[in-house]
């Protein structure tokens, strides 16, 4: 099957700092991929380029053969690391907004998930706690029938019980044609749901491998391997 | 039933071990229908691809049989289940003997330790011999 995401010699520089250096990466469809690296390694820069918020300094990044732009935004569902929703709006209004913006948005699914997490759609966003806002945002992102989901730190601020629910949401909602790219530090929480992992260090990919291959050849969990590779 | 997937072994092998243990213990009975891969993956919080791989492995060993129309069921081959049960009991006994060796007990001393508990601990010496 054709690749969903392809990077060729992708490089991004911020003035004197090289955030991504000569990245070559291909992601297949139907995979859940962990993008793992210490702080400042380039994870968010890569995700921002995928979503057209940054442009590469050199090299290319294509999604289904297209450069990031309006067409790719229609098939990529993006969870930014920071809250991007208007605080004064009610949850129900934001759901209508998403429905207007994205053709692939499934409103019923969004309300179903809100119900499961016992969240009140009549509340204004600014009255909700940080973790609750994060849940709302993830619900919006996962209610789209996208081909690539980019989740930047999706479980950082939520409690462990909601974390399990969110992981289940990711597992049960993505379809076989879709790929999920998750960046996080909370490796032990998510490693059982991953197909493959990418280790990124100082802007370079140091490892891209199947999770169970790593466990069979190294005899250790991804969390343990990460702690060894990135030991301070 | 709680899934316990915390060891460093490949996740699909942990799933295979866990499901095998449930079949041996009778939690899943011969001929029982298994939930869909997607549902089981959600229960265990693992990737559906990984659960699929575990199912393929269980089919290979014959413990799980796939029917194209009616999903997956547990084998009715009770001989196979008995054999796996005996194998599992043997493995755990060997493991136990190794641990006792580390504590400084010889294998010959171990039966004495066991019968001591069976005879004196009320949890194990009720009439029908079943653990309560």
The main sheet of chain B comes to: 2 strands, antiparallel
- The number of distinct structural domains of chain B comes to 2
Name the beta content range of chain B: 5-15%
| Approximate shape of chain A | globular
Explain this structure to me?
The complex is a heterodimer of chains A (232) and B (132). Chain A is α/β, with parallel strands linked by helices. The mean pLDDT of chain A is 90. In chain A, the strands form two sheets. In chain A, strands 5-6-7-3-8-9 form a six-stranded mixed sheet, sandwiched between helices. Chain A has a three-stranded antiparallel sheet with strand order 2-1-4, covered by helices on one side. The termini of chain A are far apart. Chain A contains nine helices and nine strands. Chain B contains five helices and two strands; from the N terminus they run H-H-H-E-E-H-H. In chain B, helix 1 (11-25) crosses helix 3 (48-61), helix 1 packs across helix 4 and helix 2 packs across helix 3 (48-61). The longest helix of chain B has 26 residues, at 78-103. Chain B folds into two domains: 11-76, Winged helix-like DNA-binding domain superfamily/Winged helix DNA-binding domain (Arc Repressor Mutant, subunit A, Orthogonal Bundle), CATH 1.10.10; 79-120. With 132 residues, chain B is mainly alpha-helical. Helices cover 56% and strands 6% of the residues of chain B. Chain B has helices at residues 11-25, 37-44, 48-61, 78-103, 110-120, and strands at 64-67, 71-74. The interface between A and B is medium-sized, with 20 and 18 residues.
